[in-house]
Amino acid sequence: MIQITGIVANESGEGIANVLVSNGERVVRTDAAGRYEIEAEPGVHSFVTVSVPDTHRIRENFYRRVPETDAALDFALQSAPERSNKKFTMAQITDTHVRTEPYYRPQGAWLGPETGPRLTNDLKQLEQESGADLVVATGDLTDIGTMDELKLFRDSIAPIETPMYPVYGGHDGHVELEAQGGDRNKYEYVEGVSCIQNYQEVLGPVYYSFDWGGRHFIAFSKEDSYFSKGDIARKDRWVIEDLSAQPEGRESVLYMHTPPPVEFLDLLGQYNVTLVLFGHTHCAKVFKYNNMVVGGPTPLCFGGYDGNSRGFRVVRFTEDGFKFDLVQQSARALPTERPIEVPVGDPDGVLKLLWEHELPAPTHRAAPVLHGHDLIYSVTDDNLRGHAGVYSVDSTSGQRNWHAETDSSVKNSVAVDKSGVGVATSIAGRVHGFDTESGRMIWEHDLPRYPGRWIYTKPAIADGVAYTGGKAGYGAYDVATGEQRWYTTLYTPIGSGDPAGDLWGAFPSPLVVSNLLITLLAGRGIVALDRASGEIAWETPLEVTHYYASPVMADGLIVSGADFGQLAALDPETGAVAWQGDVLDAQYPTQVLVEGERMYVATNQGRVRCLGKYPREAFWSFQAGDDLLDMNPFRREVRSMWAAPVRYGDLLAASGVDGKLHMLNAETGAHVSSTQFPAPISAAPAVIDERLVVATWDGRLWAFGS
Ligand SMILES: [Fe+2]
After folding, report:
1. Separation of alpha carbons 163 and 180, rounded Å
2. Which of 445, 516, 649, 688 is the most exposed place for a label (fewest CB within 10 A)?
3. Where does the chain hold its CATH 3.60.21.10 domain(s)?
4. What are the 10-residue block averages of pLDDT along the chain, 706 residues in total?
5. CATH placement of domain 339-357+602-706
6. How far is the CA of 407 from the centre of ligand 1 (A)?
7. 281 CA distance to ligand 1 middle (Å)
8. 303 Cα to the center of ligand 1, angstroms
9. Distance 72 CA to ligand 1 centre (A)
10. Rounded Cα–Cα distance for residues 298 and 631 (Å)
11. Which helix (H) or strand (E) holds 156?
């Protein structure tokens, strides 16, 4: 052990009392003269850090390397009274994955050196859009954590005037883990050196704290599989000491890379932590847990796995609390024109605008479900304004019937039983049974590991039983009472990402085929569960992943995306592959509509492709235009399509992230019309009688008819 002493002083050289100083394990406080004293073990403790109070800012650095021998380490601060203003704005960015060597990601996107200048541009735009006083970056700053990448990140944020507070994510330690024989998919502890040496060299400590506007902020690393056991113990001790050192009544904000496990939230709940922010999953999610708000945004520089646009989160703090906004960032200006008619060709002419309705938050990829004359919409509220849940809208008048609030966003459609009970599953994993007439909640059931679930699927209902879940497991629930019939825990192979959980948005929904529940498990394949027992009846390995289309029945076979560019058809009795082929002319299907002998496949590359029966000839293809928002995983400025095509008379209505409703001749693919909407259309429109109800992703509805 060595002894480190020093003074934390202001610009006039006067010591500042009561400043927290740490060696990354223990936390001490400066005395009335601004002096501190702390022990450290060279080679074990890396840095001495100062938790900068909200009356000051740093003049040089808030951290110094732990020296080899006893030393005096002084810290120079500058008065910054404006930082104690309780009204201030913070922006959170995440998962920038800055990359120096060009690399083709399996998600179908190139990353390379252009990620650096792009980050600078996106941050400059963020500064203008948010007016943020500070920016936190929640890890995976780089793609593999080489020195070059970390320097590219550092240099790319250097032109940004707003103070930036980054934190480490697993990708930032990737090459170091590999060099030690580790595997980032195995989630094992590193017995050697923590994989943070490059990061520390370029960006400094991987965990630290500071104050701003009367609040305490903690940048924390909980990527435990990248740390040695000793370092895990030290950082876990530090976070408790740091929180314990906060004065009574001060609220803390903690941000980290991975979503916090419930046990960690329980711990933080003992220390007046009110907000926990994370990244990692490339998906937006927000939920409340005890007195905490917990949430994460999509990446800044490319689309999320959940089809959410690239962007950032803004947190506006005031005296009494804070407000959230998830901001979509786009290089393009959204069109301002509003649609007034949809041309449907001769002899039918034109559908006129009948009504408009605005839901208070996005519906995004949840297509409406028709029940009688009502349309039931699922709404996602990642700003936590009380809008999450299910809405019923009268399809004739456009009037809202009711709103049934859920605990967190409902990311996919509801399912409705013939008894009139609807079932909606929230992203955090609460299953809600509601009355479709009144919106009254009848029952609720939490899936195992609630609220740590990531449910993006639509429930399936058959014979009075609702089946719902995600990659980590499915359950069967009595539609009338919510009583659980069975729950089956599922796993995906090591290497598939979160093998025991369902992190990452997975929209492929389960499908009932006679006595089986057909599920698509990312990284594993198609798995059929026995509907009576929940046991696995058969499974077929396929290279499927989370942003694929839901499996559908076509021509007596289960059709699903397979390897990139492929579709496969499986025998529902046995799971045997009847055929498989490169028929997509795209990376993967996002939605499939089956009608008789034909399949209309929407793809991530913005095309609808009309396919026939085996040997799967393609009849026609239609290409939509440029995306209005960057809603495609890992990509930006591309063309994509999330919405399923729907049939309207002789026509096929295809909707794109280009914000256009494309009316096509279903037989020939001939283009009839394209109507521009002011935002992307990311879920299928509804067809009721002769009317067509289109929703843009943000929850605005337009009904057209003669
Ligand atoms: Fe990431």
Report:
1. 34
2. 649
3. 85-328
4. 97 97 98 98 97 95 96 97 97 98 83 96 97 98 97 98 97 93 70 93 98 98 93 97 97 97 95 97 95 96 95 96 94 89 88 98 97 97 96 98 98 97 98 98 97 97 98 97 98 79 88 98 95 98 91 95 93 96 92 94 96 82 97 94 96 97 97 97 96 98 96
5. 2.130.10.10
6. 26
7. 6
8. 11
9. 39
10. 10
11. helix 147-157
Structure tokens at 7: 């003074």
Q: Where in the chain is the domain with CATH 2.130.10.10?
A: 339-357+602-706
Span from the CA of 469 to the centroid of ligand 1 (angstroms): 24
CATH topology for 85-328? Purple Acid Phosphatase; chain A, domain 2 (3.60.21)
In CATH, the architecture of 1-81 is Sandwich (2.60)
Q: What is the spatial distance between Cα 164 and Cα 129, in angstroms, rounded to a whole number?
A: 16
| The two three-digit tokens of residue 500, written as one number | 């025991």
* Beta carbons within 10 angstroms of residue 429's beta carbon: 26
Residue 586 identity? A
Between the CA of 141 and the centroid of ligand 1 the distance, in Å, is: 8
How close is the Cα of 592 to the center of ligand 1, in Å? 29
CA of 153 to the centre of ligand 1 (A): 14
- Could you tell me the distance, in angstroms and rounded to a whole number, from the CA of residue 669 to the centre of ligand 1? 39
CA of 296 to the centre of ligand 1 (A): 12
Ligand 1 center to 304 CA (angstroms): 10
CA of 298 to the centre of ligand 1 (A): 10
Helix, strand, coil % in the chain, rounded to nearest 5: 10, 40, 50
70 Cβ neighbours under 8 A, 6+ residues apart: 2, 3, 4
Give residue 109 CA to ligand 1 midpoint distance, Å.
14
Distance CA 606, CA 631 (A): 11
Q: Say how many Å lie between the CA of residue 172 and the centre of ligand 1.
A: 10
Secondary structure class of 178 (helix, strand, coil): helix
Domain with CATH 2.60.40.1120 in the chain: 1-81
